[in-house]
Design brief:
295 residues, alpha/beta, Rossmann fold, 2 domains, 6-stranded parallel β-sheet, 10 helices, 38% helix, globular
């Protein structure tokens, strides 16, 4: 058992709860003023168990903060053309402020076509090319949800990124790539981004003042790969078989918590770290989209 008495655990559940309260208070103000309430639309294709769970969590979050929501469910036999027409309808619905299509989609449907069909002003996942590219502009639009959640955790735990060496392990379009840009642009950090082709990964991770790992490979980062006093953000969440658990699995991060945590100043646990921040970031983006559309 790791002694965490001298370590700050970054509590994503607590931060997410605080943010939900702030959003709910804002929604209450809008109600009192007789103004339009934020409206999030969600498209779910098929009956994948994990996707259904994620969507249920988003619907629950909307209810908690007082948002309106629309859930559109389609069989996994839906054609790409038909799905794109439904996206057009939502784009044209003036009452809907934010819009997401739950991934993954059936392999015969182009994720890029679907993503780029979404109106960037309603793209609260932050996946469109326009929103992705705006990260490096003077006026960024909507940030990708998970990277936004990571930045918010750092901000609320007063982690100063200015001039710090941030190492991001994982270069995906969803997390690593946009997060590295946000750390450099908004965080004013010096950023090293690593990926599966990086040689001698430990030589980079050992230099990190702030280490962020988003690969999906349980236990990739071990204690001998980090320096004393590092801040670690573990984005990875993978189901690992575990017969001792009622559900038959445990959630494991990309960081080997037992060996890494004793060397950290701060670290996110898995679960309970970054995970809760992704949904709350969608709520923040939806509120922002709603208020920008009603100005």
């Amino acid at each position: 058992m790791v002694d965490t008495s001298k370590i700050t655990l970054i509590d994503g559940r607590k931060v997410a709860s605080d943010i939900k309260k702030e959003i709910a208070d804002r929604v209450s103000e809008l109600k009192k003023q007789g103004k339009k309430l934020p409206h999030l639309a969600i498209i779910l294709v098929g009956d994948d168990g994990a996707s259904t769970t994620y969507v249920d969590g988003k619907v629950k979050a909307c209810k908690e903060v007082g948002f309106h929501y629309s859930l559109l469910r389609f069989a996994d036999t839906i054609s790409e053309e038909r799905l794109l027409k439904h996206i057009d309808q939502i784009n044209n619905d003036e009452d809907i402020d934010g819009f997401i299509v739950q991934l993954p989609l059936p392999s015969r449907i182009s994720v890029e076509k679907v993503t780029e069909r979404i109106n960037p002003e309603k793209d609260v996942d932050g996946f469109t090319n326009e929103n992705f590219g705006s990260i490096t502009s003077a006026d960024p639009h909507i940030f990708p949800a998970t990277p936004f959640g990571v930045m918010e955790l750092l901000r609320r735990y007063n982690v100063d990124t200015t001039g710090k060496h941030c190492v991001v392990v994982g270069a995906s379009r969803l997390v690593g790539a946009p997060l590295s840009m946000m750390l450099a642009e908004q965080g004013r950090a010096t950023v090293t981004i690593c990926h599966k082709y990086t040689e001698n990964l430990a030589s980079h991770t050992k230099k990190a003042d702030i280490l962020i790992v988003a690969v999906g490979k349980p236990g990739l980062i071990t204690g001998d790969m980090v320096k004393e006093g590092v801040v670690v953000i573990d984005v990875g969440t993978t189901r690992v078989e575990d017969g001792s658990k009622p559900r038959g699995f445990s959630l494991k991060g990309d960081v080997d918590f037992d060996t890494v945590a004793p060397k950290c100043a701060m670290i996110t646990p898995v679960p309970g770290g970054v995970g809760p921040m992704t949904i709350v970031s969608l709520l923040m983006n939806t509120l922002k989209a709603s208020e920008q559309r009603t100005v």
